[in-house]
Specification:
- The protein is α/β, with parallel strands linked by helices.
- It contains 14 helices and 13 strands.
- A hairpin with a 5-residue loop joins strand 2 and strand 3.
Length: 404
Amino acid sequence: MRQRKETVTALLFLLAMGAALVWLAFPFLTGDSALRTALGALRRDPASFPAFVSEAEGDLNDDLDRAHGFIQLYGGFQRLTGRRVLEDVDQSARVVKLSDGALNFSYPHAEPLDTAPLAEAVEDLSDALAAEGISLLYAAAPQKLQQGREAELLPPGIHDYANDNADRLLAALRDHGTDTLDLRPLFDGRSDYEDLFFRTDHHWKPEAAFLAWQELARVLDADYGISTEPSRTDEGSYDKTVYEDIFLGSQGKRTGSLYAGVDSITEYVPRFDTDFTYSSASFQAPRTGPFGTSLLFPERVAERDWFNGNPYTLYAGGDYALATIDNGLHPNGKKILLLRESFSCALTPFLALSCDQLTTVDLRQFQGDLMATIRDVDPDLVVVLYCVSSLGNSALFSFGQGTS
């Protein structure tokens, strides 16, 4: 039986490699090849050799990666053989398949983090803000690996410490007296936990971001006097459009659609009146108008492009160093500054409904003086919202000298 299984596996491998070779050679043999076209131009004009050399690598890559066929074939073969740990060029963050069929990143040399420096950085920021009369709330967003189920979900021998790291960080912050909001218990009690995250991407879905915002809005009202009109946090107040099979996430782009499928994404558009101005140095001009065209980017789901598109950025557009959202309907005159990473893309448009002005800062991109920026904005509250899997990125905790 074992010998038969190994024979079948070998045959499948040979078939896959044969198909890959045909796929790779097809454009060159048929003439539909960027490199072949360039060679023809070189024969006609030998003086164009320097230009040929400078462009040859790109032309060859275009031919080899034609429609990303090699990635598709590779992923399809890995699925046929049942492989759950994929080996590819980037070994610093391998893609693994969880027991529920979703993909996840795995870091081969991961170890428990020393979270003391992270806690100290947040505590220093909290103290500096308190001296300015500004409150700080540190919020922890859940990751795809549900707390307590890591060993069950991950392939044998693979470990993840993100939830444990977050537990220690939150405990230290609470001991210091820093306000915290752990969003994980809100998710852990749900039977649809895995459905709140994309199968081929590391981010949560808009449905999860909306759920997190509902809880955050409750805390903002109860603890900071920043109230949100109840109808805003009611899912029934939104029209929803589902874009089916449109998203191949950061993990799926490395495995192809044949390995774990593709994702859909839901667009929330309020039925109530909204009026926003979304400004950033990254924009050619401010985006103005209702929620659906100012805070959402419909062009990101206008066509299906699995390998080059990023439908997740339908919400808020992407990771900008500094951006400001002004709510033209002035719900309560309050201002929030959000220290964010990519999980906040899906949350930002909803949070903007809770305040008069929302300023977002991504410290991975931001090059300015954070405390000077905060003083200029003069927010009522600074919210730090990071996924528990982001704690290893030290840039997110580089709050600057002004906090000490």
